């Protein structure tokens, strides 16, 4: 008989809201968060940056997202763009380049959403 062990983790969230560019017409802004995944306490687990873009906003240039990831100083930063009510596009950046996927940034992103 195969036994399965399910690991349960809590995601501790530290939130730093920063307005970096505010649109004068609709007052939209990007939200930056620091997410600690796979932990039950703040400052533990695997930290990642999460950037939630304003509705209807496009992703910044790759260069800007790399620089943002470097400024946040975490191994990966997820940039989230809302496409529809339950549909999002996420791009992941390290301080050096874009990467295809990041587990802890994905889990943290969906917890935040």
Low-confidence stretches are: 1-8
Strand content bin: 25-35%
Number of strands: 6
Order of helices and strands: EEEHEEEH
Strand order of the largest sheet: 1-2-3-4-5-6
Task: Output the structural class.
Answer: alpha+beta
Query: Radius of gyration, rounded?
Result: 15 Å
Total of helices: 2
Shape: globular
| Quaternary state of the chains | single chain
Distance between the termini: 38 Å
Mean pLDDT across the residues is: 81
- Give the fraction of residues assigned to helices: 10-25%
Q: Sheet with the most strands?
A: 6 strands, mixed
Outline the structure in words.
A hairpin with a 2-residue loop joins strand 4 (77-84) and strand 5 (87-93). A 6-stranded mixed beta sheet has the order 1-2-3-4-5-6. The protein starts with 11 loop residues before the first strand and ends with a helix. The protein has 113 residues and is an alpha+beta fold. Helix content is 19%, strand content 31%.
Task: Outline the secondary-structure elements.
Elements: E1 12-15, E2 31-37, E3 46-52, H1 62-72, E4 77-84, E5 87-93, E6 98-99, H2 103-112
Parallel strand pairs: 3-4
Antiparallel strand pairs: 1-2, 2-3, 4-5, 5-6
What's this model, at a glance?
This protein has 113 residues and is an alpha+beta fold. 19% of the residues lie in helices and 31% in strands.
Keywords:
113 residues; alpha+beta; 6 strands
């Amino acid at each position: 008989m195969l036994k399965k062990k399910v690991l349960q983790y809590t995601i501790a969230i530290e939130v730093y809201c920063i307005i970096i560019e505010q649109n004068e017409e609709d007052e939209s802004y990007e939200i930056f968060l620091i997410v600690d995944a796979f932990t039950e306490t703040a400052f533990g687990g695997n930290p990642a940056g999460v950037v939630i873009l304003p509705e209807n906003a496009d992703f910044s240039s790759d260069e800007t997202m790399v620089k943002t990831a470097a400024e946040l100083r975490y191994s990966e930063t997820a940039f989230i763009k809302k496409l529809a009510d339950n549909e999002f596009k996420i791009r992941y950046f390290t301080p050096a380049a874009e990467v295809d996927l990041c587990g802890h940034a994905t889990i943290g992103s969906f917890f935040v959403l």
